[in-house]
Amino acid sequence: MTHPKKQENNLSLAVLFICVILFFASISILFKIFFLIKESNFDTKHSFNVEVRDATNINVISFSPAQNSISVLEVDEKVKTNDIGSLLELPIDARINLFDDEFDSSHIPTILIKSSFAFSRKLENMTVLDAFRLSLFARSVSGNSLVIKKLPQNLIDSDQNLLIESSFKDSVIDGEKKAIEIVNATDVFGLGARLATFVTNIGGDVILVSTREREEKSKIIYSNKQSYTVERLSKYLNFPKEKTDKKSVADVIIIIGQDSLEDIKF
To answer: May I ask the CATH class of domain 48-168?
Structure first.
């Protein structure tokens, strides 16, 4: 016969064990939530561009919370590239690979949710929280604010900039109207012009493109308060920011150094 006191002790140990397990499980969940939020890239306030690939096509979706709109650029299936951002001179914040599934611009919210939980899809630079937020935003956008444009192969090297600028302009950057100067301090000819096109496509106001003697380090120099324009360009280009008190015609000066050649994003 089991002693009642022994049964009580066993029950207490079992309860204590369960409490310890629940405690550590709760801590683990809290840490996962913390890092999920920390690693999230879409802040629900600013433009966010997502590349979506299916078996045959490349599509670029621009989510614009400031304008409560979505723009979709359907790239000609004949265009084959591993870096659509550089080809179109457009910042790509995240990627979704649908593999054998077909992309349908009328079902963007569903695609985002399924991509979060299905092993048949792959998210790059996007967390499950990002996908969920983007899906909620996409559901809030009316059909009239969903703009779908096709980019034929013959426009890749000609009129694409007008098409991209009209659809993928970041309204916050456009609204800040920061005067931007671009300085090519590398040995690569034309790099300044390429970055100027990139900046213009997202709404930046490039007032001057120049060259100077070679410099090793890239950087973004700004005066007055740090703006969203500076933050956005610094984050995407991976150029460090530097504040200056010197007066200049430009509010922002982007210096392209030799170190940028290791990973050109424009």
So the answer is: alpha beta
